[in-house]
């Protein structure tokens, strides 16, 4: 098991847009239950399945396994809760860390989130000026919750 | 994807008990939703994750992946819906097919089911005399339903 320590923010300007190459991510859920999330993701030509346990503070247990691409495509198209999540991800290095900026499509269009993964809960970090309000503790922003209650419905 | 064609029966006497070596199976569910079952199983020293799509008649899509044993044990103990299923399985060859006889433990003690996997829905087969009533279409007997509504509660 790995432990994922992640903090999430909204963006407050468009400064992120010109940085990093956007990569399309397609992801869906075989379980979006907060105690046992099962996520299927295709990025580029590769697919992974990720299991996540319940978050305690900003930490969460996470296990990741490679999946055959054809199986993952079938899960996204036929088995996963619908609609699946599609988003462009940009990876933007800044002050020793990499920010992942997700620009959502479809029913979540208009939502842009910036995430940083940290080695410990106490780790200090600097924020680029386009990083805005923190939403780590707001469960509406969990990708697994953006299927049943997409941003456009808020 | 494989397609699983399976028929399930109750037993009507104890004739199965002296046949086959009982092996302990421990299995739990990260999702028991009928359209996207995610099962974790430990049998002997090996673990697998199985994804199952919705059944149509007696057929069901099924995908299976090996799992690290330590991960599977952690899923069963901490993440899966509780209580997990524990049962002794006996594999009994008969008339060209192998019957799997599951003797349930814990909250499902008293339940014994015999299953046969077939190459096609139309395949004919002979039944040993300890095989009783067919329950393939009775969803109460799905292992994924025996967690929320165990046999002892019927």
From TrEMBL, chains A, B:
Superkingdom of source: Bacteria
Provide the top EC class.
Answer: lyase
Looking up SMART domains in the UniProt record yields:
CYTH (SM01118)
Which residues are named in the active-site annotation?
A: 29
What are the CYTH domain coordinates in residue numbering? 2-154
- Supply the InterPro entries for this chain: CYTH-like_dom_sf, CYTH_domain, NeuTTM/CthTTM-like
Indicate whether Repressor appears among the record's keywords: no
Q: Which keywords does the record carry? A: Lyase
Entries under SUPFAM superfamilies matching the protein: CYTH-like phosphatases
Molecular function as annotated in GO: adenylate cyclase activity
For this protein, the Enzyme Commission number is 4.6.1.1
Q: Which CDD domains match?
A: CYTH-like_CthTTM-like_1
Its recorded name reads Adenylate cyclase
């Amino acid at each position: 098991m790995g432990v994922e320590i992640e903090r999430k923010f909204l963006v407050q300007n468009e400064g992120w847009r010109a940085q990093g190459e956007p990569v399309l991510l397609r992801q869906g859920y075989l379980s979006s239950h907060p105690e046992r999330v099962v996520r299927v993701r295709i990025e580029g030509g590769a697919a992974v399945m990720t299991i996540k346990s319940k978050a305690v503070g900003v930490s969460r247990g996470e296990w990741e396994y490679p999946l055959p691409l054809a199986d993952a495509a079938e899960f996204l198209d036929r088995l996963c809760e619908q609609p699946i999540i599609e988003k462009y991800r940009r990876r933007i290095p800044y002050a020793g860390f990499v920010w992942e900026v997700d620009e959502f499509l479809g029913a979540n269009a208009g939502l842009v989130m910036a995430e940083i993964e940290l080695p410990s809960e106490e780790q200090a970090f600097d924020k680029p000026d386009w990083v805005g309000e923190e939403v780590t503790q707001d469960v509406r922003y969990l990708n697994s919750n953006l299927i049943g209650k997409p941003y456009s419905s808020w």
